[in-house]
């Protein structure tokens, strides 16, 4: 079906929805011919029409996204003209009830379809709220309703009320307070139910879409509790009313209560909503909601939706329009204010500061899976922006669709031959993340991205998500500095060792292996397994390979000491390839009688003959040529019934690709 869109401001959301809707085709744009509409038509490769008479005869749907007459626009008249040509029309809200009555009559007269567009009603949170509210209203009559809203979205809010009360609404003003502050208050009776409304009844003189403090939030109170829609994109919750039981002894006898209201969750998340940012909402959620409206309109046109249901929806729309007029009549005209301050607060920076005062255990207990996933994703992206910056600095991946062979990349980016494999791995992870596209041995940028422009903002965001939550600031700064120094790392003017052991100090390495949340958690687990094994035996020996800075050793020995298991340890052999670490270990742990050190290369032909009860390896297998061969050698060092305790990354570590990979060599 061919669709025309009238208006190109919010109309662009309709255009995107049409493009995503199977069976619909964007046939053109109808507008007054402004530069914006010309640019929009050019972008989407469609005709621009400036008069209804110019439209082709095969247009089957018109989306009128132009202000109605009540709003000072030509939307009402335009919708009428289109329907007089037999074209079904969807008119974007808001509209006055009188306008809608006239347009419905025009649709009937011309045997076509008319409907009001209101994508808020297709949002998952709003749908869930209406569903649960109707179920509750079948059980109990609401005793109060509280609404917070911006009057810019008063119409969608009114339509929610109209839907809840099946198109039967009477609204009376009880009292009003309209001070010169962001929110005005009004008390109304909706079907004799007290409704408290707090409305941001303002409009900015500059950008009308950017002054709202919120969309709308609705709470419906019942005798049993309160149902709340937190936001049009947020959670739907039900809060039980607290009822104090009639017990002689309180709280002493509460343990005798095992069923009933007291034992129910005080607040239930009926619909959790989706964790979305506003980019996702504008880019995906809204177009998808409009797409759903368009699909319903197609069903109306084709007769899939019954006349009875169409009449019901028309009644609800008319009721919503009347309710909107009544509510705005009570609140009064919005007053124009100066441009509102819009200084963004990064809450992740606030959270980062709060985490700073917590112990590692408290951080581990508090952090959520989403925080870890989001923080990891942002740090990974920051690292890959650093990689892209290298490529773009040498004339590659600057334009979408411009393909570059791997050989060209390796030739243009100055680097030591030992690091060729690193550049190849960069290309692969950037393709896997979606930054690059791949066709066999050539790559291209998937979407416009200026790495130089976004480098600092992305790294700042990554820092706010990382610092004190997922690791210390020193480790974030280490990764950030590596990203800045990538040109020098690639051509050998800086070494990875210099970056990690800054000025010959081990502070960064110590923080990396001790104080990142993942390292801390893994070390705690290794220590617990070791202590449990030791507690079940009279005497055991332990070999730690690749002990390095002693990050794991410190936790294991601390656990053994705290559990009173020192007598069970016959020997703890601390080994590493580097003598540098062994000397520091002797100073740190030499007070343990069972502690010893030795230089050991786990890739050597022979790794010794002495056998141990426990063999520990924390993050050592990632730098060996043949993992299977090394594991087999280590297995031979275990006594019968002994255990191998290792911690290792099971996926690609993107931050390692811009840092420690430069001190490794390509596996054979």
Would you write up a description of this structure?
It contains 23 helices and 24 strands. With 668 residues, it is an alpha/beta fold. It has four domains: 116 residues, 3-Layer(aba) Sandwich (Rossmann fold); 158 residues, Dihydrodipicolinate Reductase, domain 2; 145 residues, no CATH class; 139 residues, Vaccinia Virus protein VP39 (Rossmann fold, 3-Layer(aba) Sandwich), CATH 3.40.50.150. The protein has an eight-stranded mixed beta sheet, covered by helices on one side. It is globular. The model has no long low-confidence stretch (mean pLDDT 91).
Helix content percent band: 40-55%
What is the CATH class designation of the largest domain?
Alpha Beta
Q: What is the first-to-last residue Cα distance?
A: 58 Å
CATH superfamily of the largest domain: Dihydrodipicolinate Reductase, domain 2
Mean pLDDT: 91
Structural class: alpha/beta
Shape: globular
Radius of gyration: 33 Å
Low-pLDDT runs of 5+ residues are none
Strand content: 15-25%
Q: What's the β-strand tally?
A: 24
Largest sheet: 8 strands, mixed
- Count the DSSP helices: 23
- Walk across the major sheet and give the strand order: 8-9-10-7-12-13-14-15
The assigned CATH architecture of the largest domain is 2-Layer Sandwich
What's this entry about, in short?
It contains 23 helices and 24 strands.
